[in-house]
Automatic annotation (TrEMBL):
InterPro entries: AAA+_ATPase, ABC_SmlMolc_Importer, ABC_transporter-like_ATP-bd, ABC_transporter-like_CS, P-loop_NTPase
UniProt-recorded name of the protein: ABC-type Fe3+/spermidine/putrescine transport systems, ATPase components
UniProt-recorded Gene Ontology molecular function terms: ATP binding; ATP hydrolysis activity
Pfam family, one: ABC_tran
Length: 330
């Protein structure tokens, strides 16, 4: 039985009266122990939503509850949020002159020194930063600082961890490791994670639930695979999978049966094979992508993209047989 921990009910927050900004009428529930990823382009309202959930911003309408208790806004209490919620922002808020150990330990009272020490060591092990114990924050890389910030957030009895663009400061290699860490820590500690990112790769890999934000509106919510395979908006398909979007005329030129709107498909839905329903395309360009290649294909003046796993099979100016195996009408 899933236990609900946070409920966001019809919240709206507008910064300026005339202009559209902030978030509008957003509702969703979060279950205990889940990882929620809020994905959207820059300015779509992700940080605003996170701050409203945390109690850092006062909402214009609606409410956020934590275990049924309403989260108070900054006008209603001195320290924002709920004591079991912690937010890690891009600036990490660490004491840069103090050691890693002290940054984490300082979150706890001195009433039980033994417990404080044990808990600090435990968190450092969890985040794989125990070897950095005696280093000062200024001596750490961005990724290491981030781990300290997360350890610091989790060392007290935190049941909800909020992360704003947690992977924006780190390189690709460390990103993979941090993602895996967050997933592991959530599983090990049962902490609920709400993270915000403009890079959907973060959310797709990590999250139990994805929320897609656009212009302050919640566009879609669901399991990553569900949303990826059944996006209800071009915006989502473009953001999650770099989808190809063809208007009605262009779609018809490729023989796609569509009366209005757009035909939308991911490059990997294009089958490069010689079958009864495949059509002849010209290869306009080949982009090297590591373990695969992306082909730019043209037919009747319409350009699409396809994925080729067997690298080097088709070259620029070649002709290939391709079939758009699946497409969405959006
Ligand atoms: P995101 O985190 O998705 O990039 P934000 O939540 O920061 O987006 O911002 C959403 C919208 O609200 C943007 O249009 C932004 O310009 C506007 N906005 C954010 N903070 C403020 C503010 N303090 N004052 C006025 N407008 C703001
Ligand atoms: Mg933001």
């Amino acid at each position: 039985m899933k236990e609900q921990i946070i409920s966001v009910k019809n919240i709206s927050k507008q910064y300026q009266q005339e202009q559209a900004s902030g978030v509008q009428n957003i509702s969703f529930d979060i279950n205990k122990g889940e990882i929620i990823a809020i994905i959207g382009e820059s300015g779509s309202g992700k940080s605003t939503l996170l701050k409203c959930i945390y109690g850092l911003l006062s909402v214009d309408e609606g409410e956020v509850t934590f275990n049924g208790e309403r989260i108070l806004g900054p006008n209603e209490q001195l320290i924002p949020g709920h004591k079991e919620m912690k937010m890690v922002t891009q600036d990490f808020s660490l004491n840069i002159y103090a050691k890693v150990y002290d940054n984490i330990a300082s979150m706890m009272a001195n009433t039980d020194v033994h417990y404080k020490h044990e808990k600090t060591m435990e968190m450092m092990l969890h985040l794989h930063i125990d070897h950095l114990k005696d280093k000062k924050i200024t001596q750490l890389s961005g990724g290491e600082q981030q781990r300290v910030a997360i350890a610091k957030a989790l060392v007290t009895n935190t049941s909800v961890l909020l992360l704003d663009e947690p992977f924006s400061q780190v390189d690709a290699l460390l990103k993979n490791q941090l993602r895996a860490d967050i997933k592991r820590i959530a599983a090990e500690t049962g902490v609920t994670v709400i993270m915000v990112s403009h890079d959907p790769a973060d959310g797709l890999f990590l999250a139990d639930e994805l929320l897609i934000l656009k212009d302050g509106h919640l566009m879609q919510r669901g399991k990553p695979a569900e949303i990826y395979n059944h996006p209800n908006h071009i915006y989502t398909a473009r953001m999650l999978g770099n989808a190809v979007v063809l208007n009605t005329d262009d779609a018809k030129k490729l023989g796609l049966e569509i009366k209005e709107g757009n035909a939308v498909f991911y490059p990997e839905w294009v089958e490069l094979s010689n079958s009864w329903n495949s059509r002849r395309f010209e290869v306009k360009d080949v982009y090297y992508k590591g373990f695969y290649e992306e082909l730019l294909l043209e037919r009747n003046g319409v350009t699409i993209r396809a994925i080729q796993l067997n690298r080097g099979e088709h070259k620029k100016n070649d002709h290939v047989q391709a079939n758009i195996g699946r497409f969405l009408k959006l």
